[in-house]
Design brief:
Shape: globular
Number of strands: 0
Low-confidence stretches: none
Number of helices: 17
CATH architecture of the largest domain: Up-down Bundle
CATH topology of the largest domain: Growth Hormone, Chain: A
Helix content: over 70%
Largest sheet: none
Mean pLDDT: 88
Length: 438
């Protein structure tokens, strides 16, 4: 059982760590022979994350229908193929497409790894197994920053994508040997719904990312926003008419579910806005090496891990209010960062954000799961992961766009404002729904 948990956790670390690691490569990519524009740099980061987010729920259904072990192994193959294509990409367009392919593979890996972990343990030990798998998702950020920093310190950016190509086959062999076979279920994939969700999300990001260069009043930007709104409406209509929807919009009538999804989304919106800007600021403004930049994120990660383990003993409503306030305070603090700021002063911002997210994320994730019947826990887990990845993608896009037009300080203030409004709305929904127990 421990071997299953170890292998499944390693699969999760591989997929999530790549999200953090790529941010460290942004300065190198910007100066590379590909010559990506500001908008193209954002797409190199976001193409992976948005496909990852939008395919999580249908990928989970695919595991139920075709076999979770088989989907996991296929996901590792797709993920490795995308990474290989990224390492060999001759152009920015090819790199973005390869990143999107890797994101599809990651979406297949994530839910299958959790369900296989649960299946390998007896009911009495499953809570501990889930906690171990969840801890791996947190550790992935550290691995991505440290591993990515180490690679970028000594090797070209292509090596960042070749490393997963070497690791994925090893994990596939180990998974084939130790992962249990789980009975299949007649799950509905709803490929049309998944396609609409991906198209709507990409259209939204296109409008945000391309705005500064194409012009906010341009046909491309306005058309992208209009297409996004229309596609989201079509997605909702399709889901309401479907006998077996991918994601039933009526679930969001539950205040606790709405609050949890929004809360997780805005927390990762702020976190990945920081990840995207932090790597460039530390390397280009403060002169840090890639490896030192990877180490410099520890003031965010360590309090996040420590506080999240203590969060169960906190009053939950106070943990939410205090945690969200700390995240906003950290973002505002970072808005004052400049060339003359010592790192010890700068690090206060990530420290506040890490402590705040450690308070907030366990409570919000619990709200998502608790709002649904026990037999729909898989959907709750998928919603939690999708909210996290979509929030991350939009956070990168918004931060990159505002920074390009108004500077880094304004970017952090804009992100802080979004987090504040989203957090306040989530708390309001919790007050109107079932009371959060102390």
């Amino acid at each position: 059982m421990k071997r299953v948990l170890g292998v499944m956790s390693a699969c999760v670390v591989l997929t999530i760590s790549l999200v953090a690691a790529v941010n460290l490569a942004i300065p190198t990519l910007a100066a590379s022979s590909l010559h990506p524009s500001r908008a193209q740099l954002l797409w190199i980061v976001d193409s992976y994350v948005v496909v990852f987010a939008c395919l999580l729920i249908p990928a989970g259904a695919a595991g139920d229908r075709f076999g979770r072990k088989g989907v996991l192994l296929a996901g590792l193959g797709v993920f490795a193929l995308g990474c290989l294509a990224a390492a060999l990409a001759p152009s920015v367009a090819a790199l973005v497409a390869a990143r999107a392919l890797s994101g599809a593979g990651a979406a297949m890996i994530m839910p299958a790894s959790l369900s296989l972990t649960v299946a390998a343990f007896p009911p009495a030990d499953r809570a501990r197994a889930i906690a171990g798998w969840t801890a791996a998702t947190g550790a992935a950020g550290v691995v991505g920053n440290l591993g990515g920093g180490l690679i970028m310190e000594f090797l070209p950016w292509q090596a960042l994508f070749l490393a997963p190509v070497a690791l994925a086959p090893i994990l596939a062999v180990l998974a084939a040997l130790v992962a249990p076979r789980v009975p299949r279920h007649d799950a509905h994939l709803d490929l049309a719904g998944a396609g609409l969700l991906v198209a709507a999300s990409v259209s939204l990001l296109t409008g945000i990312v391309e705005g500064p260069e194409a012009g906010w009043g341009s046909a491309l930007v306005l058309g992208s926003f209009a297409a996004s709104a229309a596609l989201f409406c079509l997605f909702v209509r399709h889901q309401l008419r479907s006998e077996r929807p991918l994601l039933d919009p009526r679930l969001f009538a539950l205040p606790r579910l709405r609050a949890g999804v929004l809360g997780v989304g805005v927390m990762f919106f702020g976190l990945f806005a920081l990840f995207f800007t932090n790597a460039r600021y530390l390397q280009e403004v403060m002169g840090f090496s890639p490896l030192l930049t990877g180490v410099a994120i520890l003031p965010l990660v360590i309090p996040m891990i420590v506080v999240s383990r203590l969060a169960a003993s906190f009053d939950r409503r106070r943990a939410l209010v205090g945690g969200m306030a700390l995240v906003v305070a950290g973002l505002v603090w970072l808005s004052f960062a400049g060339p003359g700021m010592p790192y010890a002063v700068y690090a206060v911002g990530p420290l506040l954000m890490g402590a705040g997210m450690g308070c907030t994320l366990p409570v919000m994730s619990t709200e998502i799961i608790a709002a649904l019947p026990r037999e729909r826990a898989g959907l709750g887990s998928g919603l939690n992961s999708a909210a996290r990845e979509l929030g991350s993608a939009v956070g990168v896009a918004v931060m990159g766009t505002v920074t390009a037009t108004a500077g880094m300080g304004a970017g952090y203030l804009a992100v802080a404002a979004v987090v504040l409004v989203g957090a306040a709305l989530a708390l309001l929904w919790l007050r109107t729904g079932e009371r959060v127990p102390a």
